[in-house]
Amino acid sequence: MVSYLDFEKPVAELQTRIAELRKATSDEMDLDREISDLEVKVQKLLRDTYAHLTPWQKTQVARHPERPHFHDYISGLCEDFIPLAGDRLFGEDEAIIGGLARIDNQRVMIIGQEKGNDTASRIKHNFGMARPEGYRKAIRLMKMADRFGLPVVSLVDTSGAFPGIDAEERGQAEAIARSTETCLSLGVPLISVIVGEGGSGGAIAIAAANRLLMFEHAIYSVISPEGCASILWRDAGKASDAATAMKLTATDLYGLGIVDRIVLEPVGGAHRDPKSAIAALKTALLQELAFLTPMDQDVLRSMRRKKFLDIGG
Amino acid sequence: MSWLEKVRNKIPFIVKRETPDNLWHRCSSCQTMIFNKDYEENLSVCPKCGFHGRIGSRARFDSLFDEGDYSVLPPPVVQEDPLKFRDTKRYADRLKAARLKSGENDALLNAKGLFGGRQTVIGVQDFSFMGGSMGLAVGSAFVAGVKAAIECRSPYIIFTAAGGARMQEGILSLMQMPRTTAAIAALREAGLPYIVVLTDPTTGGVTASYAMLGDIQIAEPGALIGFAGQRVIESTIREKLPEGFQRAEYLLAHGMIDMVVPRFEMRDRLISLMDYLLPVSEPA
């Protein structure tokens, strides 16, 4: 059962109609024609709707519960994956998952936030909101990748780092800063992908990359639209206005020179056809890897630093 | 102008008394009334309870550099209002108002001068300028401060104060986190110390980037320092926050900073730290 977003109501209505016709089909009544007409209509409607999504609608798509998450990408992208756990300092934070993987037989270290897809797994992964342990695990894995010459791929999908007492007392800010610093120090390629939500410091901590890819309907911003609206408009209900003003869509960020490449999604968003979304990402990742892997470690490092030093300078 | 003033101003023989409204300062901690002049001379620290009030960039420079002598580095030129952002007001107007009020270009100011006899570059973030928030201007000033420090082989000492990133500059403000971090890497490679003094308040993206990467981390007493805002935490976990949560002393107890240093001792402490970290041979 697909869950529809509020702006998809006309699509939902057509789908219900199709389902009804399917039920009514019998030997006496052949409704195939009508059904296929309606299906064409649905496709056209979806294409039109998704071609003109507002920033706030994109925010809803990026957060869609059925959108592929880290584990879906792992099984779709990699032939092999060996997860590695723990920060060796305090604990194991399953909001960030990482490990050794093969993508089209190329060895990489892959790291990313996992939001979970049902109540139990969402709790286990803390809805993709990492604590300091998560970032310190990412640091450990990135440094290991650097030592063994493995390119790092990070998949970003988080509303932000976890705001909690425990996270603060164990140095959430320091962990994020250190993780960003580690990204910038790597002598191996770092390719980051905003696959869903790129929420603020919790996202940049693993995304200070050589190349930043972003899915067509993903979002990436300094604060959530709701947070921005409640601070600047003093009204969280103005989230839609804030989403527009902040310029958080892939197209906006490509225009600002922050995103290097947009990965197109299937009609109706990645959640309607995860397989082709993941296949599109795989193609893009392999091209990026082929481009970066031959580069010298000093070049990779200085290129990455220069890219960020030049933002606004 | 009220009707009373309108009438009075037309009567030439009634001399308007000059009573500035900022003659007194009320300590926000112990409520003691202090003569503003005395309060400022006391570096904005309450003489009764020791509460550290917020202090502007220039007053800070005055209290640090040898003989209060320094030159302020020119603010870097950056693209203004890159997103043409507008909430209930235009960002361009908010910026204009903040400049008019402060007389400064943006929230981070660098100065260079002799400090304990050595050429030193110090940066100070001013919370009164749009909450000290980090956008292109703050990021650029930080990078310029580091560059100036490398040029004169000086440490870079930064006094932080910020609510976080400047939302009105969207993703470009977030990008100042890796940007400033990249600048610190250059300072480290040049073998120069990077010293952070956390002042009240330092939160959000500033804490999660350059404010937590110092070789030495110092905080002023009572300063609020954290990643997430207290209201956000309370509404997420629905619990009351512990006493002293996210204050300088709390960070010290949790191993996040090296020391808490009162404002009066700051200059001497920084100089003695420099005596350890910098080469001994250069009497200026």
TrEMBL record, chain A:
Keywords: ATP-binding, Coiled coil, Cytoplasm, Fatty acid biosynthesis, Fatty acid metabolism, Lipid biosynthesis, Lipid metabolism, Nucleotide-binding, Transferase. The keyword Lipid biosynthesis applies. The keyword Coiled coil applies. One of its GO terms (molecular function) is carboxyl- or carbamoyltransferase activity. Residues 30-291 form the CoA carboxyltransferase C-terminal domain. Gene3D superfamilies: 2-enoyl-CoA Hydratase, Chain A, domain 1. Its EC number is 2.1.3.15. Pfam families: ACCA. It comes from the Bacteria. It catalyses: N(6)-carboxybiotinyl-L-lysyl-[protein] + acetyl-CoA = N(6)-biotinyl-L-lysyl-[protein] + malonyl-CoA. Pathway: Lipid metabolism; malonyl-CoA biosynthesis; malonyl-CoA from acetyl-CoA: step 1/1. Component of the acetyl coenzyme A carboxylase (ACC) complex. First, biotin carboxylase catalyzes the carboxylation of biotin on its carrier protein (BCCP) and then the CO(2) group is transferred by the carboxyltransferase to acetyl-CoA to form malonyl-CoA. Belongs to the AccA family. This is Acetyl-coenzyme A carboxylase carboxyl transferase subunit alpha.
Automatic annotation (TrEMBL), chain B:
It is found in: Cytoplasm. SUPFAM superfamilies: ClpP/crotonase (SSF52096). A zinc finger (C4-type) spans 27-49. One of its GO terms (biological process) is fatty acid biosynthetic process. Pfam families: Carboxyl_trans (PF01039), Zn_ribbon_ACC (PF17848). Keywords: ATP-binding, Cytoplasm, Fatty acid biosynthesis, Fatty acid metabolism, Lipid biosynthesis, Lipid metabolism, Metal-binding, Nucleotide-binding, Transferase, Zinc, Zinc-finger. It catalyses: N(6)-carboxybiotinyl-L-lysyl-[protein] + acetyl-CoA = N(6)-biotinyl-L-lysyl-[protein] + malonyl-CoA. Residues 23-284 form the CoA carboxyltransferase N-terminal domain. Binds 1 zinc ion per subunit. GO terms for molecular function: acetyl-CoA carboxylase activity; ATP binding; carboxyl- or carbamoyltransferase activity; zinc ion binding. Its EC number is 2.1.3.15. Pathway: Lipid metabolism; malonyl-CoA biosynthesis; malonyl-CoA from acetyl-CoA: step 1/1. Zn(2+) binds at C27, C30, C46, C49. It is an enzyme of class 2 (transferase). Gene3D superfamilies: 2-enoyl-CoA Hydratase, Chain A, domain 1. Coiled coil: none annotated. It comes from the Bacteria. Acetyl-CoA carboxylase is a heterohexamer composed of biotin carboxyl carrier protein (AccB), biotin carboxylase (AccC) and two subunits each of ACCase subunit alpha (AccA) and ACCase subunit beta (AccD). Belongs to the AccD/PCCB family. Component of the acetyl coenzyme A carboxylase (ACC) complex. Biotin carboxylase (BC) catalyzes the carboxylation of biotin on its carrier protein (BCCP) and then the CO(2) group is transferred by the transcarboxylase to acetyl-CoA to form malonyl-CoA. This is Acetyl-coenzyme A carboxylase carboxyl transferase subunit beta. It comes from Zymomonas mobilis. The lineage of its organism: Bacteria, Pseudomonadati, Pseudomonadota, Alphaproteobacteria, Sphingomonadales. The gene is accD.
